[in-house]
Structures are given as structure tokens and as C-alpha cells.
TrEMBL record:
Pfam family membership, one: Usp
UniProt similarity note: Belongs to the universal stress protein A family.
Transmembrane segments: none
Protein name, UniProt field: Universal stress protein family
UspA domain: residues covered: 7-156
Coiled-coil intervals, chain numbering: 68-95
Keywords: Coiled coil
């Protein structure tokens, strides 16, 4: 039985300090498999208490404008990070290959949103970091691995790997 073809890789990023190994793996896999990469960053929604406080001080149109500007800032940060990572990684490996990564920002609880976006975007593989300094999977990684309907590639992000 042949393995399923991987055409789309969903690379999840917290935009934290130790995300470079995850990026490196996603890009290398995409190159080897000739797959496209979608970079996903999940933003948790404001809780009910915060929402009530915000609504008591600001009108709805201002809240929407602030929300949209915040999402656009995150997208711009992702694009800048991708350009920097791309340039530095290609120099480091002294190879020339082209890759295109589509940044996506989604709102919701991390694990559920990753799984929902993987399905929505037609991902064939999820690449994510371990995101825990003690050598264990974070609750988000653990949940995604247990619930995913597609393979999940977990990359250690501890200092020993950098």
C-alpha cells in the first residue's frame, strides 16, 4: 500500500523564540516532498470578562477596527519573520531552492483551531513544535497528536536541538 501523497503542510508557529527548528523542518519537508506550506498562528480570543470590559468603554466599530488592525499586525510580523528565516536558512544550507509559505492567522483555542484549520485548508501533514522545555509535549501538541486525522510531525524545540 502506497503512502498518501503530501501536497500541503500546515506549519504551526507560536512566533516564539525557539521556532526556528520547526520552520527548518517544515521547509525541508516541503522541498523534499514538493509540497506547499501554510504557516498558521493561532490567537486566543478575549475571554468574556475582557470582552465585557472592552464593550463598556469602546463602541463596536472601534473594537472591530482594533481587532482587524491587530490581526493585520500579526500577519505582517509573520511575513517579516518568514523573509528573515528564508534568507538566513538558505544561506546556512548553501542551497538554492524556492519555497512559498502562506501565512494564516486564526482565532480560537490552540489545539482545536489547529485541527479545524488543517481540515479547512486541506493539509496532509501538520508540523509543529514540542513547545515544552521539560522534554514533553505541551498540552496543545499532545491534543493535536491524539485528535488529528492526518500525520503530525513534532519537532523538539529545546536548546539541545538548536
Amino acid at each position: 500500500m502506497a503512502l498518501p501523497e503530501i501536497k500541503t503542510i500546515l506549519y504551526t508557529s507560536s512566533l516564539g523564540a525557539q521556532t526556528r527548528p520547526v520552520f527548518r523542518q517544515a521547509v525541508q519537508l516541503a522541498h523534499n516532498l514538493k509540497a506547499r506550506v501554510i504557516m498558521l498562528h493561532v490567537v486566543e480570543p478575549v475571554g468574556e470578562m475582557g470582552r465585557a470590559l472592552i464593550h463598556s468603554y469602546l463602541p463596536d466599530d472601534v473594537i472591530k477596527k482594533m481587532h482587524d488592525e491587530g490581526i493585520n499586525r500579526v500577519l505582517e510580523q509573520m511575513k517579516e519573520r518568514l523573509e528573515k528565516f528564508r534568507d538566513e536558512e538558505l544561506k546556512a544550507i548553501d542551497r538554492d531552492f524556492d519555497f512559498d509559505i502562506e501565512p494564516v492567522v486564526a482565532e480560537g483555542q490552540h489545539a482545536e483551531t489547529i485541527l479545524r484549520q488543517a481540515e479547512k485548508l486541506g493539509a496532509d501533514l501538520i508540523v509543529m513544535g514540542q513547545e515544552n522545555t521539560f522534554g514533553h509535549h505541551s498540552p496543545t501538541t499532545h491534543h493535536v497528536v491524539r485528535q488529528a486525522k492526518i500525520p503530525v510531525f513534532v519537532v523538539p524545540t529545546g536548546k539541545q536541538y538548536l
